[in-house]
Amino acid sequence: MAAPTLQDGLEAAGSAVNLLWKPNAAPWTPEVIEPEYAGWKVEQASWYDSVTIADLSHHMSDTFITGPDATAMLRAVSANDYESFAIDQAKQFVTVAADGNIITDGILLRTGEQAYTLSGVSAAQNWVKYWAGAGGYDVAFETDPESSVRGKDDPRLFRYQIQGPLAGELLADVLGGPFPEVRFFGSAMVEIAGRPVRALRHGMAGQAGGELIGDYRDAAVVKEALMRAGEPLGLVHQGAWSYPTASLGSGWIPSPTPAIYTDDSLTDYRRGVSLFSYEGQKALQGSFYSPAIEDYYCSPYELGYGRSISFNHDFIGREALLEAREHAPRTKVTLVFDIDDVTRVLGEDPGFVHHYWRNRVEPVGRPGTLAGLTFQTGWLDPVGTVMALTLIDKEHAIPGTEVEVVWGQHPGAGTAPDADLGFPRLRATVAPAPYDVLARTGYRDRA
């Protein structure tokens, strides 16, 4: 019997929202690594006051793309600029549907003239592979899925991120010299403990440091060298709880809803995607409920990807994206919650708080008026309160604006979207995204 597809799931559920709406679903955390090593608060603080290592070897899918049409195919399915795309450079990969709304992002690394590695959530990779086949491009794909899908086999690549104010000192020790003089998303080959490693200027917390990538057969040797060099510096290992909260300070929204569910022209595409995929299983939940999946879609311009978009070529969704460039109604901000309201609703010691609820954001004094949606919410201990990465209407996006977040889990179908469910409201203040000053002002410019 054939495995169920996304299209099968949609037809059985009756709608995309029926399929995906899962109140009280546990938030995603990276697989394989321990929940905590030094304690989540210590691990969060290490991004800003010492140095940290994060093992990213297991939770991302990698698709290796080769063939004479690799660049032409990628140009046709993404909004990135390939005229200025050098070998050993990476880009924030931007794919959109015909309506201009995002599929998902990813990191696209160019490793040769016609060779690329696309890493991240598998949805963008599924999109690329489908359109490569539909377009008849002469390309080959090899996908190494995340460990939760792969099973007992080792990943093909290891990834270790070293970040924090002492990262440069650690990396200089283990590399025998400073980190390569490359700009943001640039990379160079180096050696660690005699093993070849790619050093990429990138990190989830937006702090000093970089990402080290290599053959997984060398993972243990390289990690041992990093841990040994970091010991006198107080190197802290990131756990599965703290790691996802890095984006609260650096401003990257990790969980957009792919714009793929209702377009009739994508029926065949959905038949090629497993029901047990990001697209079929990524839960929607929170105080905002709508039966229309389109109300959860978003534009890459709203997510802050405008600098990654180029219109110097034709690609899927180009005309709609041109319209969004001028008229996207929302923008990305960080909401900083009022600590008195946090303790009133969550308790004096709320403990570890982190989720991807789509909570309603409303103007103060105007209950029922939707101003925006939260996408990721969590306690960031160096700030001392709960924060939320949010897409908000531009009229409410000025830093210092006060709003209210409706905190709760709408039960979904069978209850009116605007039902008064008695959810508490927490005051919050609009702040920039990224919230962290280095991530906002200097991280991308660091050489």
List keywords for this structure.
6-stranded antiparallel barrel; single chain; alpha+beta; 24% helix; 6-stranded mixed sheet; Gyrase A, domain 2; 447 residues
Class inferred from helices and paired strands:
alpha+beta
What overall form do the CA principal axes indicate? globular
Number of strands: 18
Read across the widest sheet, the strand sequence of neighbours is 8-9-10-7-1-11
Proportion of helical residues: 10-25%
User: What is the CATH class of the domain at 40-59 and 152-251?
Assistant: Alpha Beta
CA-based gyration radius:
21 Å
Q: In percent terms, what proportion of residues is strand?
A: 15-25%
CATH fold descriptor of the domain at 40-59 and 152-251: Gyrase A, domain 2
Which regions have little confidence, pLDDT < 50, spanning 5+ residues? none
CA distance, first residue to last residue: 54 Å
Please tell me the CATH architecture of the domain at 40-59 and 152-251 by its name: 2-Layer Sandwich
Instruction: Give the assembly state of these chains.
Output: single chain
Largest sheet composition: 6 strands, mixed
Annotated CATH homologous superfamily of the domain at 40-59 and 152-251 = Probable tRNA modification gtpase trme, domain 1
Question: How many helices in DSSP terms?
Answer: 14
Q: Please, what is the average pLDDT?
A: 95
